[in-house]
Amino acid sequence: MKNIVTAGIGIAAAALVLVGCSDDKGSTPGSSSPAASGSSTQVSTSGNTEVKVEGQDLAGLDTSTVTCVKAGGKINVASGAVGGQQGVAVVMSDATPPAVESLGLVVDGSALAVAQMGGMKSGSAEVAVDGSTYTITGEAQGADMKNPMAGMITKKFEIKVTCN
């Protein structure tokens, strides 16, 4: 049972990374276009992005690929690196204050997440806003893919991104 839960959370985290990187509006990074509902879609790739895990920069993550998309009452932050590489994906509400709805990190091949699914909560995240800069901190949980039998792992993270 422990192995099934560990595998399930790992799969959920990987799915979050893929969902966070998708955009159903068909927009490309660096562009802005009106959404079908009449609201605007804002895409930002500017600013200094930082992604730290356990106090260290997430090695192997190209922070220049991190985009921030505001659309449909959501803020999506995602990196270009997915599929087993280092990566990040965050979905937040575009409210005051914003709240993290889901977060996925790929760290050294392990999928980590902050999510609430089916009454189960994994990890935690808080958002601080300073102008157009969002700082997301917390702890993500998942499976150590190098040793899946070891059970759950938890890592502290800090993500700082500018969304114009």
TrEMBL record:
Keywords: Cell membrane, Lipoprotein, Membrane, Palmitate, Signal. Residues 27-41 have a biased composition (Low complexity). Residues 26-50 are annotated as: Disordered. InterPro entries: LpqH. GO terms for cellular component: membrane. It comes from the Bacteria. The keyword Secreted does not apply. Pfam families: Myco_19_kDa. This is Lipoprotein LpqH.
